[in-house]
Specification:
It is a single chain. By secondary structure, this protein is an all-alpha fold. Helix 2 runs antiparallel to helix 3. The longest helix is centred in the middle third of the chain and has 18 residues. The two termini are 23 Å apart.
Length: 85
């Protein structure tokens, strides 16, 4: 039996888009804009992942957010962390 990483079937970009929508719905515009810039301005996949990872870490450590936002952000952060290793 083969062990599969969570990241094998995980769409980081789609989940980032969903999180951005959640953030906008919670009036967390500055964080939503920061994540949008990561997606729009990154030149490579690695650059995008690193930027998202950094911004999500900042969100998780510094901002108060609703539990659904925290859960989504934490999951995406962990998936990015796994992918960047």
């Amino acid at each position: 039996m083969e062990c599969q990483l969570m990241s094998d079937n995980y769409d980081h970009y789609e989940e980032a888009e969903k999180l951005i929508s959640l953030l906008e719905g919670c009036q967390m515009e500055s964080t939503a804009i920061a994540l949008r810039r990561c997606l729009d301005e990154g030149s490579t996949g690695t650059e995008i992942f690193m930027s998202l990872h950094w911004n999500l870490g900042k969100l998780l450590n510094e901002e108060q957010c609703p539990s659904n936002v925290f859960i989504s952000a934490n999951k995406l952060w962990k998936e990015l962390d796994t992918s960047l290793k």
